[in-house]
Amino acid sequence: MPRFDRSHTDDLAAFIQASPTPYHACAEAGRRLEAAGFERLAETDEWPLGETGAYYTVRDGSIIAWRVNSPEIEGFRIFGAHTDTPTFKVKPNPDTGSAGWKQIAVEVYGGVPHQTWLDRDLSVAGRLVMRDGAEVLVHVDRPLLRVPRLAIHLDRGVNEGQKLNAQSQLTPIWGLGQPYEGEFLDFIAAEAGVDADDVFGHDLFTVALDPPAYLGKDEELFAAWRLDNLTSVHAGLAALIAAEDTGEQVPVLAAFNYEEIGSMTYSAAQSPFLESALRRILATDDFESYAQRIAASAMMSSDTGNAIHPNYPERHEPGHRPVPGEGPMIKVSANQRYASGAEEQALFRRSADAAGIPWQTYVNRNDIPGGTTIGPISGTQLGILTVDVGLPILSMHSARELCGAEDPGRLADLALGLFTH
Predict the structure, then answer these.
(1) H or E stretch at 89
(2) What's the rounded Cα separation, in Å, for the pair 211 and 190?
């Protein structure tokens, strides 16, 4: 039996199941926030000025939520994350096929390890934008698509390594017969309960259907799709809801879409979305006042990182070997691929001490550079002290990722430590 209170991780599993796309993640986060007394604000509305309260706003799969616990604002404590995940996006005209099979044309979204998506039952989820501009979420929550692997008899060298062509060899099947134009989108519209003629745009993605699960003799491991980075979104959400006493510091959750493809959209970390929200929260046109409060602020960028892989230990930095079950990591990079210098390390340690949790350090090998995060982007964009953190996981970007079952709760504790210390 597990040796820890698994309520947080159970709730993470439910959050993941309800959030197959960034748009669903924002909707589910909004539902939870409203249940906790938060009010949704549209960017086109006037926002409350100089009032205490709890609010959130959504833009294109990104969400910013905050609490004002005092009429006097000293600064912000921001917990940053991202809502998107590497997968396949349905193309605008998706109906295609070959050799008597109906197929769906897709485009690779982000850094997808192709092999993990083969021979797996997939569904489709996303959003439809209607003639009048309304947004309708859709999730076909049953097996619908599959990318079939070529039989070993027809590819005897498959176990010696196989490079798949993203255009011709990763097209999922979904039926038999000759495809016809409009069939797939007609089907999706019917699933969403809308008229296909009124659908003027769509963002649809393939979805891994395997439900989250605990693994191991003692259930000390947790497997799911979208651990990267719904673990962080969920942790920040839980911490923000709990952060009722932060004095003159305003706790903020900022979860951005499009991190996996570079963050260069009007709603992503490189956009003015967060800066605009912070300025409106302060309710002042006085740049001096804004600059003082930004200088008194701090941000924690949370994203998953690579746990040491037992079958490939040589791919990891030998002096820093984070493992699942030992707590969140601070990510350090001399070249600032992660935002973590000495000041930032101190911010992390103060937050971890306030949370009373174990923690680890992650550093890339000099000859194997890792990815980056929203941390350097948002920190530079805003001029805010920013530290990069995250959970150690295996199988990053796979259709099935793996972490320590106790670590998601510790990440939420770390976020609360940031908000309240």
Answers:
(1) strand 87-98
(2) 25
Distant-in-sequence, close-in-space partners of 99: CB < 8 Å, separation ≥ 6: none
Let me know: does 242 contact 416? Beta carbons within 8 Å. Answer: yes
The fold of the 87-208 domain, in CATH, is Aminopeptidase i, Domain 2 (2.30.250)
274 three-state secondary structure: helix
DSSP 8-state assignment for residue 291 = H
7-85+225-420: CATH topology is Aminopeptidase (3.40.630)
For the record, the structure tokens of 76 come out as 């912000």
Dihedral sign (CA 66, 338, 12, 30): positive
Handedness of CA 81, 87, 88, 90 (dihedral sign): negative
What is the Cα–Cα distance from 241 to 24, expressed in whole angstroms? 19
Asked whether 84 and 111 are in contact (CB, 8 A), the reply is: no
Q: Do domains 7-85+225-420 and 87-208 have the same CATH topology?
A: no
Give the alpha-carbon dihedral of 44, 21, 270, 42, to 10 degrees. 10
What are the pLDDT digits (tens) for 113-127? 999 999 999 999 999
pLDDT score, position 1:
47
pLDDT of residue 340: 85
| Three-state SS at 388 | strand
Q: Which two tokens stand for residue 248?
A: 């003159």
φ/ψ (deg, to 5) at 292: -65, -40
**In the prediction, which pLDDT does 16 show?**
98
Question: CB-based contacts of 292: which residues, under 8 Å, 6+ apart?
Answer: none
Instruction: Report whether 122 contacts 143 (CB < 8 A).
Output: yes
Which pTM does this prediction carry? 0.95
Compute and round to an integer the Cα radius of gyration of the chain.
22
| Sites in the chain below the pLDDT cut of 70 | 1-3
Identify the pLDDT of residue 123: 97
Whole-angstrom CA distances from 398 to 120, 210, 228, 299, 314 are 12, 12, 9, 28, 21
Domain ranges, ordered by start, for the chain: 7-85+225-420, 87-208
Which positions ≥6 away from 394 have C-beta within 8 Å?
Answer: 306, 307, 309, 324, 401, 402, 403
Q: From CA 224, how far away is CA 416, in angstroms rounded?
A: 24
Residue pair 39/49 in contact (Cβ under 8 Å)? The answer is no
In terms of DSSP bridges, do strands 392-394 and 221-224 run parallel, antiparallel, or are they unpaired? Answer: unpaired
User: Quick one: tokens of 33?
Assistant: 């926030």
The pLDDT value recorded for residue 76 is: 96
